[in-house]
Amino acid sequence: MYLSAREFWGVVHGMVLGALFLLAYGGGLAGLYSLRPDWVTPAGVRERLVRLKLGAWGMTIAAWLTVLTGTWIVYPWYRAKPPAEVDLRFFPRAYLLAEPQRAGWHTFGMEWKEHVAWLAPILATAVLYVIYVYGDELATDTRMRTVLMVFFTLAFVAAAAAGLFGALITKVAPIL
Predict the structure, then answer these.
(1) Residues 15-29: pLDDT tens digits?
(2) Which of 5, 103, 120, 151 has the smallest number of CB atoms closer than 10 Å to its CB?
(3) Cα–Cα distance measured from residue 37 to residue 126, given in angstroms and rounded to the nearest whole number
């Protein structure tokens, strides 16, 4: 099996980093939900908080790396302008815009994807920050844990939407 450099970076961007972020969401959500003093001892709260901090770091780093590799490595290949009289399959944006029935993949799908994707690392960073600022207080502050779970979920939804659009667009117009 052979992957071109573009295909390799597409796999790293979506299948490795993006999937890692989406998988980390489940652990982060479970960590926040279970951080309750009535469920665990004070020592258990401290232990879970350490895991939560490590997981939030992992999720945040994966989110930023996914967005940065997509924006600065994969996306320029997508937007490359084709020279005159060339096979447009090698220029995904131009290929999508060349036919009215495919244009929506760019005008709605890609334009929306490239903006919503940035919400995931921003929200994950906010959650990470609050976990460090509030620390042990999160175990007793149900409202703050709920807010963090909502932010985690919004980050997940943003990443999932971007990933879904990315996968569908790549199916129609792959970066070759």
Answers:
(1) 999 999 989 998 889
(2) 5
(3) 24
Q: Smallest Cα–Cα separation from 77: which of 1, 157, 162, 5?
A: 5
Global pTM reads: 0.91
User: Tens digit of pLDDT for each residue in 48-90?
Assistant: 999 999 999 999 999 999 999 999 999 999 999 999 889 998 9
Closest CA to 56 of 164, 139, 151: 151
Q: What is the 3-state secondary structure (H, E, C) of the chain?
A: CCCCHHHHHHHHHHHHHHHHHHHHHHHHHHHHHCCCCCCCCHHHHHHHHHHHHHHHHHHHHHHHHHHHHHHHHHHHHHHCCCCCCCCHHHCHHHHHHHCHHHHHHHHHHHHHHHHHCCHHHHHHHHHHHHHHHHHHHHHCCHHHHHHHHHHHHHHHHHHHHHHHHHHHHHHHCCCC
Please give the Cα distance from 101 to 137 (Å, whole number): 53
The total number of residues written for the chain in this structure: 176
| Side chain identity, residue 89 | R
Phi, psi of 83, rounded to the nearest 5 degrees = -70, 170
Tell the residue number behind the tokens 């117009």, with chain if given.
Answer: 173
% of the chain residues with pLDDT over 90: 78
Structure tokens given for 47: 């232990």
